[in-house]
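G., before I forget:
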Amino acid sequence: MIGRMAQSSGAELALLLLGGFHSMVDEVNVELAKRGHDGVRPVHEFALRAVDAGADTASELGRRLSVTKQAAAQTIAVLEGFGYVDREPDPSDARRKRLRVTPRGHELMTVGGALFDDVRSRWAARIGDDQLKTLEGHLARLTGRRSFTAEDLQD
Amino acid sequence: MIGRMAQSSGAELALLLLGGFHSMVDEVNVELAKRGHDGVRPVHEFALRAVDAGADTASELGRRLSVTKQAAAQTIAVLEGFGYVDREPDPSDARRKRLRVTPRGHELMTVGGALFDDVRSRWAARIGDDQLKTLEGHLARLTGRRSFTAEDLQD
DNA sequence: AGAGGATGGACAAGTGACTTGTCTATACCG
DNA sequence: CGGTATAGACAAGTCACTTGTCCATCCTCT
């Protein structure tokens, strides 16, 4: 149906990429809810990973996620409400509130990561692990990410 | 020290897919704005393609885009405001308002499609056309290619 | 030291793309 | 016919953002 409709293989490719993302995320969300992390959304998990990777202030998180610091602050407020992060004043800079991932936050990261990995390995089983790795390598290159050093959320 | 980042290749794959989508869409949007289609968003263009492909009522559009008919109706209102579609009563069913893509709407589809194709061919130039085709094939298979199939149940 | 600018964060309001819920008008089916 | 499904309108709420404004604090430069 897409093919009949799109008349543009470029537009179709875009849809395929978005569809792939949704496909993974929806599945993970369902499982996460079953495991006591109800209400958490993909953006929260990715933000949490960024915090854990060193984005320990709202402004810095905003920069890494390419959103405004206000948007980041709102995400943090949600994360704090769920108990995934906490905030404490920075002794060396009174303007800052330093963010830390709580144990529950680390648990979400672990469980969420495992669920994402699970989807990924089912994909690998379907098209072959080497093929999936090639696909990832191409995407990394095309989107300007370095392939598996995972620097994407930093900077 | 990149070090400790995603810890989940599955989560990274999801990010890669989303990044790929955004990468294409952002580029297309910038060019579209320069060509007199300011304010138009990717969802609008995809919706327009669905209308053109035969989703000629709000309810049907909702089904194809996997959103509620109310959401589809809102998108249509925007599209109508921009002059990309118009609506007329269906003589054979007084409940329906039939949607038609206007000439300006067709122009958007043409220009937008060309811009998406342009991004796609730059990608093909970077990784090879055969590689890109393989990537598309895999994604189509993995996502079940059902973005716009009409069997999404809702009200 | 002290002015001026940059930065971090809070608060307020607005937006866009959705959702649920409710309602009416019309169509189709037994 | 009458019951039910469907198309669409309207209202209100949600969520992840955005702009804009403000203040406290830090940093730099002369």
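The helical segments of chain A are 2-6, 9-34, 42-52, 58-65, 69-81, 103-127, 129-142. Residues 9-34 of chain A form the longest helix (26 residues).

More on Monday.
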